[in-house]
Amino acid sequence: MSLSLYTLIEASFPDDRSRMALEAPDRAHGPREWSFDRLASMAARYAAFFAGLGLKPGDRVALQAEKSPEALGVYLACLRGGFVFLPMNTAYRTDEIDYLVGDAEPALVICDPSAETALREIAARRGTPHVLTLDADAHGSFIDVVLKVRDALPPAVCAANDLAAILYTSGTTGKPKGAMLSHGNLAANGIALRDAWRFTEDDVLLHALPIFHAHGLFVACHCALLSGAKMIWQQKFDRADVIRELPRATAFMGVPTFYTRLLAGDDFNRDLVRHMRLFTSGSAPLLAETFDEFRARTGHAILERYGMTETGMNTSNPYDGERRAGTVGFPLPGVEVRVVSGEGELLGNGEIGGLQVRGPNVFAGYWRMPEKSAEEFTQDGWFRTGDVAMIDADGYVHLVGRAKDLIISGGFNVYPKEIEELVDEMPEVLESAIVGVPHADFGEAGVAVVVLRPGQALDEATLVGRLKERIANFKVPKRAFFVESLPRNTMGKVQKNLLRNDYKDACR
Ligand code: AMP
What we know:
Layout: H1 5-11, E1 20-24, E2 32-35, H2 36-52, E3 60-64, H3 69-81, E4 84-87, H4 94-104, E5 108-111, H5 116-126, E6 130-133, H6 141-146, E7 163-168, E8 178-182, H7 183-196, E9 204-207, H8 214-225, E10 230-233, H9 239-245, E11 251-254, H10 256-262, E12 278-281, H11 288-298, E13 303-308, E14 312-316, E15 330-331, E16 336-340, E17 353-358, E18 365-366, H12 370-376, E19 383-391, E20 397-402, E21 407-409, E22 412-414, H13 416-425, E23 429-439, E24 443-452, H14 460-470, E25 479-483, H15 496-502
Parallel strand pairs: 1-10, 3-4, 3-5, 5-6, 9-10, 9-11, 11-12, 12-13, 24-25
Antiparallel strand pairs: 1-2, 7-8, 8-18, 13-14, 14-15, 16-17, 17-19, 19-20, 21-22, 23-24
Helix pairs in contact: 2-3, 4-5, 7-8
């Protein structure tokens, strides 16, 4: 491909580019609207500004700012000019930013005005020449300078494997690694999703996800931008705001927590979502209970899909056809998936093993970590996802857990998900997490961390006793602890590394 993802995006805009592409809240003045034409000219001006600063294709532009159309403009300008976009989680603290800036060596950092002093100090130390600011309402030194730019940078000619973005992985598994995503990776996945989920310019996507993560930035924005659909942006997920805007939308994408929160009140009902055609879920497992309750309440089967920063989306439940609760569906067109044993042997349907993927969506490797990158790929080019999975007789992929979450107790493998499901079935239990902790005798043992439903009571001995009746002893958690809530990262994933640390002495 000799075109950039940007060129592909612009080519997908509606013929009438005065149509609205994006509506975003402005806390001071009411909603702000952006036509496709305005998005394109914003990208062209921002890209001209970056080039004027001396940035060359391949240079990194780091952004840690609140969600705003201008932040999207920075992303689009990078795609247009061949610069590499580096979004940073708004929750990152100084030390995390320091690490990322040191690792990625951006030529420009754009940050919230409140972080400017810290960023200037980091940039000076790390050799980043430019620091500018941008807030949620289009104020900041970045806006002051780009408003004066009248030039438009023509779209760069990019090869499919030219770098488009570096996304640092979410950190549920140790030190952040920069996943290098090319124009070809993002284009292939964006087109696959747009087509699989039938996005057209008649769609209106209600977008409540953050845009520093692959889910909100790539999955959501690319579906809309590559089909000429409109997006209604919300600053963050706020139940009342989503309920208010849903009647104007046709599609919504969420992490499972969004759905459990929506279901928490009777005002979320069939009538409210009668214009909707699609709800998707991903980034963390959607409980079958949530899927069922959602369908009973609204008539919609949430479409669950599976992917990761390094690969974009790999599998999806079908648009037409049965969406099966507790599964992540089938490989997307162009994507191959397989399940292998610890020894690398191909496993058959129904067998549990490591999930590997191959396809145009799979990233080029981790930034400046050639050995680590090589380790993650097999000789024949399959990426080891680190997820443990099973493919059933009908071809649906089931995720069983993360390889890292796997507990090996007395030499036996325990898959946390299996135990969590049993604990979650108990009527007193809202949700649970099973983590492996050091055990004097077995090497490792499972510990259950459990959140009870309001007003319910359950004690450790009863919980353990019930499990002993249902599963082999080696699978039964050795201890159970009851907590108010499970720690989750911004994408709704349970942070098992924190739990492992909290309970590390529980079984010594
Ligand atoms: P991230 O790179 O932050 O998007 O995290 C990717 C990881 O999230 C995957 O490797 C999975 O472990 C998990 N994940 C993504 N989608 C799902 C899903 N639908 N169900 C369960 N886990 C998921």
